[in-house]
Write a structure and sequence with these properties.
The structure is a single chain. The chain is α+β, with helices and mostly antiparallel strands. Among the domains are: 2-97, Rossmann fold (3-Layer(aba) Sandwich); 123-191, ATP-grasp fold, A domain (Dna Ligase, domain 1, 2-Layer Sandwich), CATH 3.30.1490. The chain contains twelve helices and 22 strands. The protein has helices spanning 10-19, 51-60, 72-75, 78-84, 98-105, 107-116, 132-141, 165-176, 244-264, 297-301, 309-317, 393-406; strands at 2-7, 27-32, 42-43, 65-68, 93-96, 124-128, 146-150, 159-162, 186-190, 196-204, 209-211, 216-217, 220-222, 226-229, 234-237, 269-280, 283-290, 332-339, 363-366, 369-372, 375-378, 382-390. The strands form five sheets. Strands 1, 2, 3, 4, 5, 10, 11, 16 and 17 form a nine-stranded mixed β-sheet that branches. Strands 12-15-18-22-19 form a five-stranded antiparallel β-sheet. Helix 5 packs across helix 6 and helix 7 runs antiparallel to helix 8. The longest helix has 21 residues, at 244-264. The radius of gyration is 21 Å and the shape is globular. Bound molecules: adenosine monophosphate and glycine. Adenosine monophosphate binds at residues 122, 147, 149, 159, 190-193, 197, 219, 276, 287-288.
Length: 422
Amino acid sequence: MRILIIGSGGREHAFAWKISQSPLCEKLFIAPGNAGTRQHGTNVDISPTDFEKIASFSLEKNIDLIVVGPEAPLVDGIVDYFLQRADIKHIPVIGPAADAAQLEGSKGFAKAFMEEFDIPTAAYGEFSVDSLTEGLDYIDSQTPPIVLKADGLAAGKGVLICPTHEEAKLEFQEMLKGKFGEASSRIVIEEFLSGLEFSVFVLTDGKNYITLPIAKDYKRIGEGDTGLNTGGMGAVSPVPFVDKELMEKVEDRIVKPTIEGIQARELNYKGFIFFGLINVEGDPFVIEYNCRMGDPETEAVLPRLKSDLLQHLKELADEQLGTTPVEFDDRAATTIMLVSGGYPEAYEKGKAISNLENISDSIVFHAGTKNKEEEVLTNGGRVIALTSYGSNFKEALKTSLKNAEVVQFEGKYFRKDIGFDL
Ligand code: AMP
Ligand code: GLY
């Protein structure tokens, strides 16, 4: 098969690494990719949201399957675009159509969906400028901390957890005034849930699903989960506290009702669902849905998938999902992200990365990197993910930390405590 992966981060490098190992993979392209993805295929300089160029490239290269990494092209309707054009509608695009991608693209949509299908999540209210007074009253009726969420996509920054009513009211009004642009013109205010978070990933055709290895990511920049939120500083898979009993509750109360809801609403969903969950005293609740795989979770999840991902994706496209059973590697995997100094605030790009060739026992996934002739340069906040195996996450972490010291670039920073709370 001839495959095109859309995206340029560590998640897409992990997809390229895994898919290129499949005997079904004849040719692999990544648009636009990074300095790591080109070890497994050909990078093509096309933006993930330039659907016209993606379509003409796919026709020219006889692409058989497109795997979409990030949410933006999905929320913007890449699946709909392909289905609406007679000359390309035969090419399967892995991901939900735009209306189904609203599960990630609109917090209000996701909350209403969960309410309708009785899926456990925090109690909430949804407000806009037209219901400002009601919003302020709602805040007063809540027990702090108070969670405010911009309805739309806000690059992972749109959630605020306010310790007092006063702060919540101020932030609520700032958000309505455009703190996160159009994304915060509607706001979800919700109950604060306390517990440990974890992530469950399924691949679905809208009726059937297969479950991938679970993971937990570490979003804050600082050790002990302190400081600003980032795209993710590391991840572990599996998650020790997620036992068989909890996982059964997740399937029965969350995964199955979600798939039933997708069917009931007649949404076109043929792709990954990422359930961001929280364990509240043994009961799972949904914090958020994402319509794609997580980053850096994918860098820990795919190394633990023994079965052929491309085979699973092909079966999804052929309406045969689940024919081949999913097989897991019993080992644990831990990934840590090396980031640019200053991230997630301002940081510099273009720093030379050295010593990658001296890494042993870890898988190197490039995130924000690019080539300049034979040199590899930093090209983003999150630069390199190092994934290692171990009999448990701590052992795996040790190996990743050893290699994190080996890789060099100016301003390098990483968390040494991934898994500290487990
Ligand atoms: P989200 O973008 O919805 O994943 O929110 C970002 C982060 O905010 C989550 O990973 C949680 O750590 C935190 N968060 C979101 N909603 C809640 C909630 N209702 N209770 C506690 N923490 C939350
Ligand atoms: N690591 C969290 C995400 O991908 O949204």
